[in-house]
Amino acid sequence: MTKKKLTRKELLKEPDQFMTFSGRLFRFATEHKPQIIYGILGVVVVILAITAFRYFSDRAENRAFMLLEKSMGIYAEALNTKDPQLALLAVEKDFDDLFNKYGKKDGGRFARLIFANMCFDAGEIDRSIDLYHQSLEDFSHQPSLRNFVLSGLAHAYQAKRDDVNAAKYFESIIEGPGTVLKDDALFNLGILYAKMGQKQKSDETFEKLVSDYSDSIYFEIAKEKTAG
Asked: Of 197, 195, 186, nearest to 223 (Cα)?
């Protein structure tokens, strides 16, 4: 049976779909926080919830976000009984289909960033790096998401023990606008500088974290390092 097409006015009168979508994403981020790189996905979801609403008049965007919700639900269920690698395999085809059909839509762009995090968690670091680089292009005109992508890249290179590139992307976060994830970047930079034999820069980085981010989860550790 052919489904009736909703008009733009009717779509705008259906907030329940949006609330269901954003609510499930929030629950996903909360329940699976250990599998998510430094809470990046959780914060991305906040921005997703804010920005997605204006696209509900676009049926393609609506379908893209619905497919993303479905795929993340499958992934969340798979994580209950499987490790991140097997959970990734459970949704790989779904995400590929999403990229192929809606890769140029915002739903597809968000899906690519989320899938990059999933690849990271599954230990597919090179694949996650490729996706993060694509995400830099996807969100080149959305500075609010820039730090999330840069942080993903930095942590991925850190996992590859490529300290030079990891430091490069953490530095990009520090040098950019806003404060999102800057305390995380400073903390990791302090560690990387020390590892690379740059003690003075390491000390200065931890000192900046202590002076500028007293509410950071890294504050006490950084304070101990500056005291030592």
From this structure: 186
